[in-house]
Design goal:
The protein is mostly helical. The chain has helices at residues 21-37, 40-64, 70-97, 101-115, 136-150, 155-162, and strands spanning 3-4, 13-14, 120-121, 127-128. The mean pLDDT is 89.
Amino acid sequence: MDSIKFGKDKDMYPKFFGGTGKDAVRHLLLFWSLAKKFELKSNYQSWLKMKKARQEELDALISTGADQGCKEIKEALNECVSSMKSVKQDFWELFECLLDGPLVEGWKKIIKDECNGEYHIAKGGIKKLAKRGRTFTAMHACIRIWLLNVMRPNAAECHHVYM
């Protein structure tokens, strides 16, 4: 069984190479626990708050007509945007890193279809004529499709009958 180590983290984490529905659920639990452990979503939210604050500063300076300090604020804004992109990329790469080689291609196809398609189906079954992009909420949609591919058909019904 392959495993992976992340950065300075001393723990080794198993890669998902297939298996039962229970194995797939364990993989998802590992993914979400690592995303929380690495504070990916909270780091993104922090950078977003900082970006909004810098944008408000810049808007206030522009409205007063002052040019002094605009350059520094614009640089800080760019740093916030860059850091937000980096954190989001780390979040999406985490799921892929936890998959074994042959499963990565299927995951990339799901991302292409769900995130880069000409339209997407939003919550409530509403069709949106826009690309979804790689957002935190788009991850849920991709995982849902991934689970449909990994789980046996009627797995929930079989489990219900078993219970």
